[in-house]
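Researcher: Can you fold this with S-adenosylmethionine in place?
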Amino acid sequence: MARIIILRINHRPFRDKRITTHVALTARAFGASEILVDSEDSELEETLNKVSENFGGDFSIRTGVKWKPELGKFPGVKVHLTMYGLPVSDVVGQIRKETASKDLMVIVGASKVPPEVYDGSSFNVSVTNQPISEVSALAIFLDRYFQGEELGAKFQGRLNIRPAASGKNVKVLPRDDECIRILIDHGADDRLLKHSRAVRDFAVGIAARCNADQKLVSMGALLHDIGRTRTNGTDHALVGSQLLEEENLDERIVMIVQRHSGAGIPKEEAIKLGLPEIDFIPETLEEKIVAHADNLFAGDRRITLAHCVENYRKKGLDIPAERIVELHRYLSGICNIDLDLI
Ligand code: SAM
């Protein structure tokens, strides 16, 4: 897939800040990888970097570039958007073909565009032959180029919007420091923080060995025991997941927390324990990792599988102990190492 780079020329920081921000936001959301802006504008860079941090993706911005050498040395296909060019519907198929094995640079002007750009571009492309905004020209060009597929692109950032018929539904993937802040705000003491960090470090190590989502594991592990700020009963996992739902945390973190007790609790056992009639069995790899990393800690001290199992058996919990052995085997298998050895 071609990398798409936008070259924004004649950007005047005082006059064009807002419109260039919109060009960059549109480029990012419609599938471009990078925008190059020909005047230095640290505020613009900051705005875009913040958007990427919050909403995800790996879009990058460079300002203060010299547009002539950037245009000249670009080895791929260069498309200049101008109302004087050939209609987008006539040339987009050819551009798609030529970018099957080459990158694509899309040039949009802010003020008058010099003739070298017309001459130095592979295609001069119009989106109607009427003057329109560079934002709409870029959006329509990219949409035609991707044939609408870019609209379904997945981004994952701190803030993740869930489409809603009304109102706003935003789920949060907190940074590590935010997880700690959430724990402290809910009253976590030093002991709980130490345990959470220790489980997190171990869980992330497991995740790294078996290609699991390390960020998700880190967040889930840091927050797995947040329910203990309310109760130390068997319901602490459920209570913790409810607290995180109230904080609008991403569903995957909520489920990691909800399913982290032992190697999980099946519905029939849950009912006997006075829990709701649902399965609390970890299903995803990340859920399994956090549940079992927690099994192998007493406070912030690592314990072996044998030690953990013995603790369960002493309490007459033979079946849950068996499930833990099974989970240990499963994770050790996919990590190619007995977890007791790491
Ligand atoms: N007045 C400037 C000129 O004559 O070059 C253009 C200003 S225009 C608002 C800014 C940019 O929008 C242009 O450089 C071009 O990239 C883009 N643009 C405007 N109308 C367009 C159209 N109909 N088709 C494609 N691009 C267009």
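Model: Folded with S-adenosylmethionine in place. The chain has 15 helices and ten strands.
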